[in-house]
Design goal:
Helices cover 16% and strands 28% of the residues. It is α+β, with helices and mostly antiparallel strands and 180 residues long. The protein has 2 domains: 114 residues; 47 residues, no CATH class. Strands 4-11-1-12 form a 4-stranded antiparallel sheet. Strand 2 and strand 3 form a beta hairpin.
Length: 180
């Protein structure tokens, strides 16, 4: 069995006051017993994460599949600019908002400006028009932000939990499913 993750990513390349928002979300999740309050080695990221807790049963569609017995079972919070990729799910389509062309088969060097924090835009290699990266349609979904919340090895998150997360972030979000 391989590891997988679900990331909740704001549709903002630069989230305002991201450190404060990360702390606010962490405090909320701890207060409703979804995650444990102490940082531990429960994620596959480099900075550690917050282990799963009993309240997680209330926010997933299949609580019987929660990874209480796995080492990688927690929430990793990212507060640096990051591409939230679909992992082995790859990219089937990448549709330009201007020319509507699928540019997924192009050389992905056009992502470098965003990754290098030069711009929040991508320049389409088909039409040469620069547009905000958040306007491109990625299939499967990818996320682009300096704030993100990655749940390692959790089953699907409940719609009401995702909606509350979105409300607390105050913006649209991407839900990125990755297989590692």
């Amino acid at each position: 069995m391989s590891d997988h993750s679900i990331s909740i990513v704001p549709k903002l390349s630069a989230y305002p006051n991201r450190e404060a928002k990360a702390k606010e979300i962490l405090e909320w999740l701890v207060s409703v017993d979804i995650i444990k309050p102490a940082l531990s080695d429960c994620s596959l990221g480099q900075g550690g994460g917050y282990a799963i807790s009993q309240g997680a049963k209330q926010v997933t569609t299949e609580p019987e599949y929660l990874p209480f017995g796995l080492v990688a079972n927690g929430l990793e919070i990212t507060t640096k600019r990051e591409l939230f990729l679909a992992g082995e799910n790859g990219m089937d389509e990448l549709i330009c908002p201007n020319c509507k062309q699928n540019i997924a088969s192009q050389d992905w060097d056009f992502l470098n400006e965003w990754v290098s924090n030069i711009s929040n835009n991508l320049t389409c290699p088909a039409c040469n028009v620069s547009s905000d990266i958040q306007k491109f349609k990625f299939t499967p979904e990818w996320g682009f932000s300096d704030l993100g919340f990655t749940f390692w090895n959790w089953p699907s998150l409940a719609d009401d939990f995702i909606e509350e997360f979105k409300q607390r972030l105050g913006c649209d979000i991407d839900i990125v499913h990755a297989w590692i």
